[in-house]
Amino acid sequence: MSDMLHKIAITRIPRVGGVLAKNLISYCGGAEAVFSANKRELLKIPGIGPVIAENIISQNVLREAEVEMAWMERHDIQPIFYLDDSYPLRLRPYEEAPLVLFYKGNADLNAARTVAIVGTRKPTERGKLICEEIVEGLKKYEVQIISGLAYGIDVTAHKKCVKTDVPTIGVLGHGLDRIYPPEHRSIGMEMCEKGGLLTEFSYQVQPKREHFPMRNRIIAAMSDALIVVESGEGGGSIISAELGNKYGKAVFAVPGRLRDDYSKGCNLLIKSRKARLLENAGDVAALLEWDNQPPSSPKLREKLLADLNENEKIIVNILQNVDDMTIDKITFESRLAPAQISSILLNLEFQGIIKNLPGKRYMLC
Hints:
The chain is of the alpha/beta class. It contains 17 helices and 12 strands.
């Protein structure tokens, strides 16, 4: 648990996001080592200036992390580190993936099939009805529904999931010491029984305007398909759709009447070929071929292997036919410079491709 303390402390360092946090751990050789480094060592790390270095050396964030961990234990909140098996595998490959997530709930964050449903905060009755019909139609495919617990389409989807026994995850733009909007606290607690609430923000972090686009990237990344139900030409739903396209997800939009303000965003997504037209849940199942195959866990290893650089591929090939190997043996077999090896191994570990064993031994996951 001491190791998790240091990981959470890193997330509390001002001006340190997910990318810089991973750089810190990579350069220092571990989360605990970040807080053992001196100022001169920290300043050698790209992106670390005097202010951030002082924030690390002061150890204040470690004391804050101790208080936060005690609070999480009292409230049954689970911290999930980037390399943990329970971390969402669909999210992990992206550079902007958070170093630590905070989770309250019982659903698997690596469900076999996931669909995000997003839309306007002020839907029409028609929009709500269509949203509910989509959830009902998806149930037979054993999906997990992901949304943002906001007003409108988000909470409509969550409520229908709870009512029809479909696991649902609410991704929040604030800490888990509150639920925003407060009116959704009751449904949020109900969701935790078979679904859950997930956030990258530490407790006491309040809902701010800039947090919600950040929340949207997690919703998009964790989903196999993303559905937009009613949206204006701008706003969070369109941002989520753009992110879904960026991440290579199947993006759908429910069409609406011409010149209807509630349909402008959806119609534009379809017109610009940034989303497929969706009439019912069967359209998602057909594209993703769910009728022809049983649900299975997300398999990202093949994609990750294809994205490795040459030195990383050398290491993976060496470990391919052995149970595990010491770092000294890997260095010898690879003929790479010893100074490179630790950084390469840590990067492969961050990507979930190798596992660090006791005694400085490594194996493929």
